[in-house]
């Protein structure tokens, strides 16, 4: 019984077109390269160049805001112009940033690379999702692709830092050469997938929509706007498991805090890589409104466990991470699937790009968490977050239930 989901998932993966599988591999390797570098970038800048931590944080925050803010523009441009050329430009920009850090290491070059990478990711993230979706042969494959892409990205998040740790410990700039080669490979997979997209008989050839038409479609879809709002609040609540939880551990003066943080990261990765693989096909067939409510329920339990764990019992943190990861597994691919199914033909890039504005919740989470913890304490923050899951969950459930005729569930993959 336990082997059926794995077998079914592998069969669905083999059923994907070859260009789609190659594109998935390119995306996965690009994420591995990213996780080899960026988790250690703050330490490298501080120890090698003496950059203050506050300055590093400001630079990374600026990069995150740029990436999120420009994603809608990239989606709009991808629908109106040649999205392949935009993606190739994004890959070239990424490779240039890594070359800059490897050949001319310094505070200025690293800051320029952070901004350049933010710009490139704002281009690549929405357009790669659109390209991946366009290579599928039917709606069932599209739904599966959003789950398998999520799984591949999490595999990269588990593998990348382990490889990058060696380069970081040896202060080797060779990691940047690896990243350049990976983005060259991603470029080839994009070209191959774009050719397959042009040959896809399931895609209707349409002219590029006018900007006014795109904006009318976006603003006219109350469901789309409601999903973005719900996703923003959900991301804001979920992201408190990251930096704000670390702030709370510091406030509690937890012993061996680095060990606990490492254990929580490992628990998150292990749950995603094992549980999501086993439950993937069940989650694909689960009704949207039910999945959303289950995710908020798991998130509510996670925050309640953190609030209750005033005695700093290490297993309490791990149980909280397990429930939060359950919520992540259920809801993160769900939103990608919903946006993909809502987007009219010829406007998928625009809808995906606009939907990424919900990621601003992640950018606001550390500030919100720090302010509440400093003034009221961590227990107040996490009890408040647990209670906030109730209205957020009910809002999303009502939106999805009322829109059921508009969003017919996709059939499960063969």
TrEMBL record:
Superkingdom of origin: Bacteria
Q: Domain Major facilitator superfamily (MFS) profile spans what residues?
A: 14-404
The keyword Transmembrane helix is assigned to this record: yes
Q: Which UniProt keywords apply?
A: Cell membrane, Membrane, Transmembrane, Transmembrane helix, Transport
* A GO molecular-function annotation: transmembrane transporter activity
* CC annotations in GO: plasma membrane
The main location class comes to: membrane
Q: Where does this polypeptide localize?
A: Cell membrane
**TM region(s), chain numbering:** 22-44, 56-78, 85-104, 110-128, 148-168, 174-193, 214-239, 259-279, 291-308, 314-339, 351-374, 380-400
Q: Which InterPro entries match?
A: MFS, MFS_dom, MFS_trans_sf, MFS_Transporters
Membrane topology type? Multi-pass membrane protein
> Is the keyword Glycoprotein assigned to this protein?
no
Instruction: State the protein's name.
Output: MFS transporter
Annotated source species: Pseudomonas reinekei
